[in-house]
């Protein structure tokens, strides 16, 4: 692992960790000015959460069955 703070390691949160460092204030300002963009970002976030939830449920069932 290279030096950095939490979320900087490459993996599931690596890219979001890097974006969060410097781009977050600019992104938040842009989203406040563009409600359509804000809605789309929320929709994409929800889709990612649903996908992760489905994968976790599937893996949990596999573990319960002993696979």
Tell me what the structure shows:
The protein is an all-alpha fold. Helix content is 75%, strand content 0%. The protein is built from three helices and no strands. Helix 2 crosses helix 3 (35-65). The longest helix has 31 residues, at 35-65. It is elongated, with a radius of gyration of 16 Å. It starts with 13 loop residues before the first helix and ends with a helix.
Q: Characteristics of this structure?
A:
67 residues, mainly alpha
Explain briefly what this protein structure is:
The protein contains three helices and no strands. By secondary structure, it is mostly helical.
Helix content: over 70%
Distance between the termini: 31 Å
- Output the number of helix runs: 3
How much strand content do the residues show?
under 5%
**Stretches where pLDDT falls below 50 for ≥5 residues?**
6-10
User: What integer value in Å does the Rg equal?
Assistant: 16 Å
Structural class: mainly alpha
User: What sequence of helices (H) and strands (E) makes up the elements?
Assistant: HHH
Number of strands: 0
Outline, from the CA principal axes? elongated
Average pLDDT works out at: 76
Described by strand count, sense and barrel closure, the largest sheet is: none
């Amino acid at each position: 692992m290279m030096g950095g703070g939490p979320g900087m390691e490459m993996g599931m949160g690596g890219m979001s960790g890097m974006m969060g460092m410097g781009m977050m204030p600019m992104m938040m300002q842009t989203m406040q000015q563009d409600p359509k963009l804000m809605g789309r970002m929320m929709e994409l976030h929800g889709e990612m959460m649903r996908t992760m939830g489905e994968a976790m449920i599937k893996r949990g069932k596999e573990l319960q069955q002993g696979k």
